[in-house]
Amino acid sequence: MTERINEAVEYLQSKGFGEPEVGIILGTGLGKLLDEVEIEKEASYNHIPYFPTATVEFHKGKLIYGTLQGKKVVIMQGRFHLYEGYSLFDVTFPVRVMKRLGMKKLLVSNASGAINLNFKKAELMLIDDHINLQGGSPLAFHGVDQLGERFVDMSEPYDSKMNSIFEEAAKKFNITLHKGVYASVLGPQLETRAEYRYLKIIGADAVGMSTVPEVIVANHLGIPTAAISVITDQGDPENLEKVDIQDILANAAKAEPNMVKLFKELLQKI
């Protein structure tokens, strides 16, 4: 396992990747941040040893190294999901690689459906906590203790200092930034009416199919992490609409400029 990580890192270093201060994982329809990056190097996922390949059509497949707001960053343009048939180790492998490259902090974005119906489409939610409903853990494998502490504390999976900066930035730019609990499910099917009711009962404010595995591994590696979710649809069990992927992408695109502002402001302050 360590050898696989080292091989991927050596490949990226041979392609000119340096030491990033911050890693960024871009979620569904959230690629405009790259327009702000001074890109120095790129590597396609299918060329990086042991990297999975993104199979979702609206997820790209590149690892990008460059400068944003004066910080060296490594950016995942496209992420991996369990519903693509990958293992939890596959999904989180890039986080371990970015850490070995030198990453000190991790920022994550995703698209999600609102369980809390006070959250409207194209608004943003700062993830304060999460519920893992994916049916497994990215730390549940033989030899995990060689990469970090097996029994990882999760009392504060999302860094309070970075969250505070995000909240201050939202006030500065007059951006609606809710704060809530993100539930991560397996997918790829969307939730039933009964499942939306269940998610509300257990305390979820939004639901999606990503993020939690990467955040668990970041905590395993001792990396402060923050995450923002774009609300792309609403899970109202009493008035449940049929899913429209184009509508989801359109809402992600509508929210994207605000996401970019918040990410840039955070990078400037950390």
What does this structure look like?
- One of its GO terms (biological process) is nucleoside metabolic process.
- Its EC number is 2.4.2.1.
- The purine nucleoside phosphorylases catalyze the phosphorolytic breakdown of the N-glycosidic bond in the beta-(deoxy)ribonucleoside molecules, with the formation of the corresponding free purine bases and pentose-1-phosphate.
- Pathway: Purine metabolism; purine nucleoside salvage.
- This protein is of the alpha/beta class and 270 residues long.
- The chain has one domain (2-269): Nucleoside phosphorylase domain (Rossmann fold).
- It is built from six helices and nine strands.
- It has a five-stranded mixed barrel.
- Helix 3 links the parallel strand 6 and strand 7 (177-185).
- The model has no long low-confidence stretch (mean pLDDT 94).
Strand arrangement within the widest β-sheet reads 5-8-7-6-9
Characterize the largest beta sheet: strand count, sense, and whether it forms a barrel. 5 strands, mixed, barrel
Could you say which structural class the secondary elements and strand pairing correspond to?
A: alpha/beta
Radius of gyration: 17 Å
Task: Please tell me the overall pLDDT.
Answer: 94
- CATH top level label: Alpha Beta
What name does CATH use for the topology?
Answer: Rossmann fold
CATH architecture: 3-Layer(aba) Sandwich
Helix content: 25-40%
- Strand fraction: 25-35%
Query: Could you state the order of secondary-structure elements as H and E?
Result: HEEEEHEEHEHEHEH
Per CATH, the superfamily is: Nucleoside phosphorylase domain
Total count of helical runs of at least 4 residues: 6
Shape: globular
Number of strands: 9
GO molecular function, one term: purine-nucleoside phosphorylase activity
EC number: 2.4.2.1
Pathway: Purine metabolism; purine nucleoside salvage
Protein name: Purine nucleoside phosphorylase
